[in-house]
Amino acid sequence: MKKEYVITIDVGGTKILSCLVSTDHEILGRVKEITDISQGNDHLVKTIAGTISKLLTEHNIKEEEVKALSLGVPGTVNPESGILADAPNLGIKDFNFKEALQKYFNIPVLLENDVNLWGLGILHHEFRNKAKNMLVVCPGTGIGGALVFDGKLYRGSSFYAGEIGHMLVDGKGKLSVSSKAKSFEDQASRTAIVKGIQKDMKAGKKSNILEFTKGKKIKSSALAKAVASGDKLVIKHVKRSCKITGTLLGSLTTLLNVDTIVLGGGVIEAMGDFMLPEIQKAFDKAVLPEPGKEVKIVNTTLGDDAPIYGGLALAEDFLG
């Protein structure tokens, strides 16, 4: 039977998105679940398996018709062994995700870092393989990165390449070895923006952010609405994140001489039009002129679909 489909599962810190994709690049169905790590790894895998089963049932598709289950997870992944070595935002260490999910299906399971899937999707689907050296950065609960060199995803000698979120920077985004330096994601992720706002509000500073949360956690959409409303406190913290991001990207461009930087993820999707000029401004100040003038910094047009198309590319890479 012809293998006509791939199912991509994008496991994030807050949600699981599973999609059925045809091998001619059409997204046919989506199932979304909340990421619940409180009940352990096996429960998480069972939830993922449930989304896959639902897609198969809803679209009347047999397992034999599916080429692969391409799983993207936020952490350090060995795609060959299927082991998730470390995923701080999921609280998982040294877990064979591939083996655990394979117990549910007779479909090849492929495992990849979630932002690497973003990178594959952006490279193959959005840029049609026209970007030669590219850096993909996705701010969200944390901050992930993916590297493309000479048109191919670069995973590194032990699959750690792209972990931009764990680079140590000072409060302005400059690389630092100071004892006061913090990780990039501790300084500039959505989580960092929210913590900064909450800290200032507790100290008595005013913000209307809670008007947009409906009594729930502060998410990217609420931040965007607060920025659009002119909330000075929220704007201050978003701009700080942009300055740190642009400064670090400038330093990395000086080192790597990439031609394209692509920004993605929930924060960028919600307020990329506001953030990109601020990031570009900081980037221009930090980068050396020669490599800097060659770089295009853009927001991905694919949104959450980027890793979904990346799952298709992953299947083609590993299974032909």
Q: Would you write up a description of this structure?
A:
The protein has 320 residues and is of the alpha/beta class. It has two domains: 5-121 and 305-319, 2-Layer Sandwich (Nucleotidyltransferase, domain 5); 130-300, 2-Layer Sandwich (Nucleotidyltransferase, domain 5). Helix content is 40%, strand content 24%. The protein has ten helices and 15 strands. Strands 3-2-1-4-8 form a five-stranded mixed sheet, sandwiched between helices. Strands 11-10-9-14-15 form a five-stranded mixed sheet, sandwiched between helices. The model has no long low-confidence stretch (mean pLDDT 94).
SSE blueprint and pairings:
Elements: E1 5-11, E2 15-22, E3 27-34, H1 41-58, E4 66-73, E5 76-78, E6 83-87, E7 92-96, H2 97-102, E8 109-113, H3 114-126, E9 134-139, E10 143-149, E11 152-154, E12 168-169, E13 182-183, H4 184-188, H5 190-202, H6 220-228, H7 232-256, E14 260-263, H8 266-286, H9 289-292, E15 296-299, H10 306-319
Parallel strand pairs: 1-4, 4-8, 9-14, 14-15
Antiparallel strand pairs: 1-2, 2-3, 5-6, 6-7, 9-10, 10-11, 12-13
Helix pairs in contact: 3-10, 5-7, 6-8, 7-8
